């Protein structure tokens, strides 16, 4: 599965492609071939002028899921950007426009690359385990991602921590979606976790009145486990903020190993699977209780008189 995932996004590639009208065709060809790329003989030209189509023909030969290919392609992009900057200065300008450089920086930063003031690209690593949270709108997709992260997490422990957090976020959002409850994008993950557990009556502080003393869901021991699980899920998010991938982190943190990956992914998997199992269970207590309501963030319910 990992081989199918692009390590450099199309948006980053297109940010460079959009500047190709400023380079002569010979330079475009030279920079690609300096890194041992050849134009794809089966490439079918699309939109754009001759220079953009030439760029596309070489880019089509890159395996964007292969780390070596991507590393070499980044060197091609760096050479092109620096050439464009030099060409612009030859004609009395101050180099590439500031807004263009800012757009390039933002595009590359999303893929963990940094474009410095000399237009050199820096990346100590390329993320291999990335979960696209908003694309996961079914439980089957989350289960598949969990299996994928379990499989490769020990090999890429810092990625695994980032992916574990993303899977918790995806699961919480799916629960709210399936329960037709609003989610506030401005809230952090801890609030989202609490909302999702409340939606399924799995939050220890929100026991529905329809539960009976004979139900295992109402047992004090279960509530203690739920409380610990809530804290554990939030802990994965905090661990990711310190050590995992995300927010343009460029270097792999030191000291992380397979045991850290298994710990983070195992915690996330336990939380996610409990939520998904409860969501699918036809006999789950949330189905028999009154419809869940979640107060807006920052507006706690008023105290009873």
Determine the strand fraction and express it as a percent band: under 5%
What is the CATH topology assignment of the largest domain? Four Helix Bundle (Hemerythrin (Met), subunit A)
Q: What shape does the CA trace take? A: elongated
Overall domain count: 2
CATH architecture name of the largest domain: Up-down Bundle
For the CA atoms, what is the radius of gyration?
Answer: 24 Å
What does this structure look like?
The chain has 305 residues and is mainly α. The chain has two domains: 2-122, no CATH class; 133-288, Four Helix Bundle (Hemerythrin (Met), subunit A), CATH 1.20.120. It is 53% helix and 1% strand. It has eleven helices and two strands, in the order αααααββαααααα. A two-stranded antiparallel ribbon has the order 1-2. Helix 2 (25-34) packs parallel to helix 3 (50-59), helix 2 (25-34) packs antiparallel against helix 4 (67-90) and helix 8 (189-199) packs antiparallel against helix 9 (220-243). The longest helix is centred in the N-terminal third of the chain and has 24 residues, at 67-90. The chain is elongated, with a radius of gyration of 24 Å.
